[in-house]
Design a protein that fits this description.
The chain has 379 residues and is an alpha/beta fold. The chain is built from 15 helices and 17 strands. It has 2 domains: 231 residues, Class I glutamine amidotransferase (GATase) domain (Rossmann fold); 101 residues, no CATH class. A hairpin with a 2-residue loop joins strand 14 and strand 15.
């Protein structure tokens, strides 16, 4: 997350934030998903070669969530298909490698350091692409757009869905992400049909998982689509993975006709989300009030709503007191590189008569507990 990352780690939060900012507010909340009827198993099967390797590229950048890519890595490395071919490479079919913008060491969540195997310029065309929650550079997006064209499957885990959405690969498709970011995905990318209550959403060659351990389930589902249920079940048993979240019933099948595609590169940019219910005067007294659409003010790309014209006038007269602080991110996040727009307008806190917005509940709770840890040194 630089794009969005995990809600329970401040370092990972900085990786979560999308550099594209916030998208349009979508009226109403999508209903909980009722799993759609899937095509027959034979129609879902991925093209497994009879011998040889299936290459899997793990796309990485600084701050990537460890379990989002190491979980699927473990799945693919543990797959064994007895009777396939005559060599060890035939029996253990998946060949794994990491790919990044450079070969410089990368620090991912928890401080783990990884030296990428390949750069985007060097990487061979993969059969499977795994995108964890992390930041997204222009070079990464360009490589994904190109490499995904010939891949059997491009799968994103957690807020890696935002990375795929930035490439346009999710336009007109159904997708899911971590439960704390479902609303934001819907706002930021109105051309994506956001699905709730499922472990993963899969289509012919694009899939997204809810995050964390659901990435393991999606990887097992990919294994099943290549080599059948028995192979996936044997892999899960070897891993002591008792979840049935990888079974086909746990996911939603995306036919690619779930939502209208959104034209990219043309037309007006979507407006940023409304900062709802933040009336400066009442908030300065420690209370919240729902603002009215009839009393609004634009500031810094955000639209504020007020309960009265008088409060709106007070806001306009004293913007430095009430405007969103620190470019929409708490100071700790901003200090680690979180770009403007990283906060969620629905996640706010008032401190010293100033409005702060946050990317996750964890970040907001941390700020409430110890504001001094987050705010810049006045000196």
């Amino acid at each position: 997350m630089t794009a969005w990352r995990k809600p329970h780690s401040l370092v990972s939060i900085t990786a979560l934030i999308l550099s594209g900012g916030l998208g349009s507010v979508v009226a109403g909340d999508p209903a909980m998903t009722t799993p759609a009827a899937k095509p027959a198993a034979a129609e879902q099967q991925l093209p497994a070669p009879k011998t040889g390797r299936i290459s899997v590229a793990f796309v990485l950048s600084a701050g990537a969530t460890v379990i989002d890519f190491t979980g699927p890595w473990e799945v693919f490395q543990d797959v064994m298909v007895p009777g396939r071919g005559t060599s060890a490479n035939d029996v253990h079919p998946f060949q794994l490698f990491t790919v990044a913008e450079t070969r410089d060491p990368i620090r991912v969540t928890g401080g783990l350091q990884i030296v990428p195997d390949r750069t985007f310029d060097e990487a061979p065309d993969p059969d499977v692409i795994v995108v964890p929650a992390q930041g997204a550079s222009p070079a990464m997006l360009k490589w994904l757009q190109s490499a995904s064209k010939n891949a059997d499957m491009t799968m994103a885990v957690c807020t890696g869905a935002f990375v795929l959405a930035q490439t346009g690969l999710l336009d007109g498709r159904a997708a899911t992400t971590h439960h704390e970011f479902l609303d934001r995905l819907a706002r930021s990318f109105p051309g994506v049909d956001v699905r709730r209550g499922v472990r993963y959403v899969e289509g012919r060659n694009i899939a997204t998982a809810g995050g964390l351990t659901s990435g393991i389930d999606l990887a097992l589902r990919v294994v099943e689509r290549y080599f059948g249920h028995e192979t996936a079940e044997r892999t899960a048993a070897y891993m002591e993975h008792s979840s049935t979240g990888w079974h086909r019933e746990a996911g939603h099948w995306d036919s690619g006709e779930s939502a209208p595609p959104v034209a990219r590169g043309g037309g007006a940019a979507p407006s940023r989300a409304v900062l709802r219910g933040l009336d400066p005067v009442l908030l300065s007294e420690g209370r919240e009030v729902e603002g009215l659409d009839s009393f609004t003010a634009e500031r810094g790309g955000y639209r504020y709503r007020f309960s009265s014209s008088q409060n709106r006038e007070r806001f306009v007269a004293s913007l430095e007191r009430y405007e969103i602080q620190l470019a929409g991110a708490c100071a700790y996040m901003s200090g680690r590189g979180a770009p403007p727009g990283s906060g969620d307008p629905d996640r706010f806190h008032v401190h010293d008569q100033r409005i702060y917005i946050f990317a996750s509940d964890t970040c907001r709770d941390g700020f409430k507990t110890d504001p001094g840890r987050y705010l810049p040194d006045p000196g």
